[in-house]
Amino acid sequence: MEETTPKPSWWQRYKAFREEHTFAQYLQRLFLKAILYFLGISLALVLIFKFVPVWFTPTMLDRKLEAIADGRDSEIYSDWEPYENISKEVALAVVASEDQLFPEHHGFDFDAMWGAFRHNFKGKKIKGASTISQQVAKNVFLWQGRSYVRKALEAYFTLLIELIWGKERILEVYLNVAETGKMTFGVEAASLKYYGHSANSLTRAEAARIAAVLPSPNRFSIKKPSGYVQRRTNFIVRQMRGLGGKQYISNL
Predict the structure, then answer these.
(1) What are the chain's domains?
(2) In this structure, are strands 184-185 and 77-78 parallel, antiparallel, or unpaired?
(3) In this predicted model, what pLDDT tens digit does every residue of 172-210 receive, in sequence order?
(4) Pairing mode, if any, of strands 179-181 and 184-185?
(5) Could you give the C-alpha distances from 129 to 96, 119, 208, in angstroms and in order?
(6) Which residues contact 141 (CB under 8 A, 6 or more apart)?
């Protein structure tokens, strides 16, 4: 005759219930603490970088590690310059090229995002719709790659920098950390490396050529522009003129 396992007493059931719920509550508290720590640290970083130059970014680290792994020169070329020391021609050029609604939106261009979604949904070549604010959030605070988690964090940091930094600071950081060539970051480093002078004296054509390579700075060259880069440079110059010139970004 098989022995039957005795049913646990009400006290045993009660203890098991308490233990399970105590562990669940512990996990809940741990999760809430992790969120609070993340919010505190992320807010502190955004506040710090409102005033402190961004000397190094995750993208720079990625490029450096790739170069070391490939046995190439791993030196990063970057030279921070305050916004007032950078030619407004190049500031206008990147806005004309990357995000013409930058002075008006609050971090997101929803029409462009919807257009990119429809484009990608049709199975065509992946098309991005990131604003300058989103690109800064990604480049300064996040790792490279594509995932829903990273996109959610990108949106979070985009909102933070829009609220705390303001447009001029966002554009200043972008102009200093955007990848502009092989192992080269920022318009000052690009101007010195490819034109032999500081970014404060960039001409409209020079500025437009820097902006022209931004979508793929490791593929396209400022120094030896392809036919595509030259055509895109001319297009950006026309867009800059169509926006009304430097006046378009005078009240960020």
Answers:
(1) 39-48+57-69+78-249 (1.10.3810.10)
(2) parallel
(3) 999 999 999 999 999 999 999 999 999 999 999 999 999
(4) antiparallel
(5) 14, 11, 20
(6) 42, 45, 46, 58, 153, 157
